[in-house]
């Protein structure tokens, strides 16, 4: 079943998260009530990963998009983006199965991200772990101590 992703609010929310000039740093894209084939903006905010995690429910499914700031020191700030396919532990089996197919349609909206972090429990979204994964995905790691041969 193809997912309808034509609502202009979807791209607006995506662009808001990507735009450094807006305070919006996360958005959650979910399925419209009673319409499992229609993607909508379910929530968005400016409280970062912690606020995003708070709004997740055990009986919901969807896709989160989060802007995260990384720094190695006070002079180097980098912005990274995380795609979070969320499927709460109480989501039914049929809905779970559809999500694996619908992600291709979601990626027509959420086109640019550094890592994908699938989650079914809030504990799967540990900020320190995500930052570590972002650093590894970014190539050079200037935080690591090197040994003298």
Automatic annotation (TrEMBL):
Organism of provenance: Umbelopsis ramanniana AG
SUPFAM superfamilies: Actin depolymerizing proteins
Cellular compartment(s): Cytoplasm, Cytoskeleton
SMART domains cross-referenced by the UniProt entry: ADF
Sequence similarity: Belongs to the actin-binding proteins ADF family. Coactosin subfamily.
GO CC annotation, single: site of polarized growth
ADF-H domain location: 2-135
GO BP term (any one): regulation of actin filament polymerization
InterPro entries assigned: ADF-H, ADF-H/Gelsolin-like_dom_sf
Any one GO molecular-function label of the UniProt entry: actin filament binding
Record-given protein name: ADF-H domain-containing protein
Keywords: Actin-binding, Cytoplasm, Cytoskeleton
